[in-house]
Amino acid sequence: MHWRNAVRGTASLAGLIFTLSCANRQAQTSSPADFRFSVNPISLAVAVGATSPPSLFSVTPSNGFSASVVVDVTGLPDGVTSAPAFPLTLKAGHAQNVSFSVPPTFETGLIPLRFSATGGGVSKSGSMNIDVTPQPITQSYQQGTMLFLQSNTGADIVRVGLDTASGASITEFSLNGVNYVNTNDPGREVQAGLWDGDNADQSKPGFWGTVQAGDHNFNGSPVLTQTLDTALIYTKTQPLHWIPEYFGGGSGDPRPSDIFIEQWLTLVAGHGRAFKVHYRITHFGTDTHTNAGQECPAVYVNRGFDTFQYYSGSDPWTYDSIANYVMPDLPNLSPLLYTPEHWGAYVDSNNSGITVYTPGSYPYTVGFNNPGPPPDGTNDFSPSTTFTWYPGAVLEFDFYMIAGQAVDARPIVYELQKEQTSTPFAPWGVLEAPLSGDTVRGTGALIGGWAFALRPVKSVEILVDGSSAGLASYGLSRPDVASAFPEQSNNTGFQFSFDTTKFANGTHSVNARITDSAGNIAILPTAQITIANP
Questions:
Q1: Which 3-state string (H, E, C) describes 389-455?
Q2: DSSP state of 198
Q3: How much is the pTM?
Q4: Side-chain-facing half-sphere of 185: CA atoms under 13 Å
Q5: Kind of pairing, strands 122-133 and 43-47?
Q6: Helix (H), strand (E) counts: the chain
Q7: Domain at 34-133, CATH homologous superfamily
Q8: pLDDT tens, position by position, for the chain (534 residues)?
């Protein structure tokens, strides 16, 4: 009797579970098709007579929604136009960039816009404010050793200062009198720092490093030429070796490097808080400084701007959420931060500060904090920009500085991103075998490593004592490299069978020369080996 009741009770419970499961399935399958409509960002600034950065209108479907959605706008004043024009049609799961143009005669102020999105029997709404600002007024002037380019919009004064006593490095980037840039020593500021992969240790004689501002003895790099125009500052500098003692100099006896740095500073059209810095760096020496990460630029900011903001996700250029990160204190460096939108910002507790965008760089950034007291304390970051200084090498690139909140700077970055079509930076890689100090012999010694580039790798050539020994096989599986560097392929390995019998016994240098499809060249750091055949 008890057994039968137990069976009967179990059967009843199973039936109840089955009934609830069916009901849940029915509820899930009967949920109506729907979509989410979003407009990002919800606030844009545009100067009179200019076109706004892009806003992103997107339709995200759910529950099988597949209809097209028609988006229309209300509140768009006469004379203000959009591209594309409203109404516009979006397919489910798609997005559309929309920019707004304001005529030169339009009055400044806020334009509140409302949007309706209708499709498949479903309607949604969204909104955005457009802040119409005056066209910025620019002026350049000199005060002592300082060259200034200033933007005035009435509400804001933004100023960039170049110090001709320090190689025309950027020692001021300020918004309404608040300077972001740390200038405690010539190794800081916002500037170019150039390095050699074969001489990475500053403590060892032979170290080659050149810093735009000057050397570690506080000797300033000389400015050879300067030009001030209403909206442009141009300078040409011959930077000093960072450690002159390794080149026969010392304190009060600086040593110029084999580099020229030309710099053009301008305002970004229509944006009173955004400035463009164009560099052309020429190596006129006859030697080669092998591939290394260059500080192009190095960005040092004052303490108080301690939070690093950047985009770290897998959907760049969609206005997805911004990450907040606190850099580690020295002597530690940050891990390689994934920055696929190629910008980073140091901000204060009000999320205001300096944003730096370096188009064409690798999507990785490193940095640190120095928590010392002012002015010693500083925060630093640099985008990943690799280059080889072979004879006659020229590196020409842009970066942008934007003052204020990163969320307001980001739309300007999105606008600038559309102009980027190429990269000047070299491939990136490591020669893993042989290593310096190794002894090799025989006809099948292995030369190998990995490399990738911002454009497809075209060739990997092995150099022995500076001359070609042949082409390596490229495209070998290296999932470890892809794991360490997001966006990179699994197939970045290279390998070469080295016949050492073609060379005399003794010491030889081995390099790998990587060339990408755009003609950018990286000569990887040298392995000094010994060939010892019987």
A1: ECCCCEEEEEEEEEEEEHHHHHHHHHHHHCCCCCCCCCCEEEEEECCCCCEECCCCEEEEEEEECCC
A2: T
A3: 0.91
A4: 9
A5: parallel
A6: 3, 40
A7: Immunoglobulins (2.60.40.10)
A8: 333 333 344 444 444 344 444 444 444 456 899 999 999 999 999 999 999 999 999 999 999 999 999 999 999 999 999 999 999 999 999 999 999 999 999 999 999 999 999 999 999 999 999 999 999 999 999 999 999 999 999 889 999 999 999 999 999 999 999 999 999 999 999 999 999 999 988 989 889 999 999 999 999 999 999 999 999 999 999 999 999 999 999 999 999 999 999 999 999 999 999 999 999 999 999 999 999 999 999 999 999 999 999 999 999 999 999 999 999 999 999 999 999 999 999 999 999 999 999 999 999 999 999 998 888 999 999 999 999 999 999 999 999 999 999 999 999 999 999 877 789 999 999 999 999 999 999 999 999 999 999 999 999 999 999 999 999 999 999 999 999 999 999 999 999 999 999 999 999 999 999 999 999 999 999 999 999 999
- In this structure, what token pair is assigned to residue 305? 């701007």
Taking CA atoms, 17 is separated from 8, 14, 24, 150, 164, in Å, by 14, 5, 10, 72, 80
Backbone phi and psi for residue 391, each to the nearest 5 degrees, phi listed first: -55, 125
Contacts 24+ apart (CB under 8 A), 87-94: 88/57, 90/57, 90/58, 90/59, 90/117, 91/59, 92/35, 92/59, 92/61, 92/65, 92/66, 92/67, 92/68, 92/119, 93/59, 93/60, 93/61, 94/58, 94/59
Which tokens belong to 423?
Answer: 């990269």
Domain 137-303+358-407: which topology?
Beta-galactosidase; Chain A, domain 5 (2.70.98)
Q: How far apart are CA 514 and CA 182, in angstroms?
A: 36
What backbone phi and psi angles, to 5 degrees, belong to 30? -95, 0
8 A C-beta contact, residue 132 and residue 113 = no
Rounded Cα distance between 80 and 104, Å, is 10
**Strand, helix or coil for residue 115:** strand
Domain 428-531 has CATH 3.50.50.60: no
Cβ–Cβ under 8 Å, residues 488 and 482:
yes
Q: Which two three-digit tokens encode residue 523?
A: 């000569």
The C-alpha torsion from 9 through 15 and 19 to 24, rounded to 10°, is 80
Cα–Cα distance measured from residue 190 to residue 188, given in angstroms and rounded to the nearest whole number: 7
Rounded to whole angstroms, the Cα distance separating 308 from 485 reads 20
Can you tell me the distance from the alpha carbon of 425 to that of 293, in angstroms, rounded to the nearest whole number?
Answer: 10
Q: How much helix, strand and coil, in percent to the nearest 5, is found in the chain?
A: 10, 50, 40
- 286, 290, 292: which is closest to 511 by C-alpha? 290
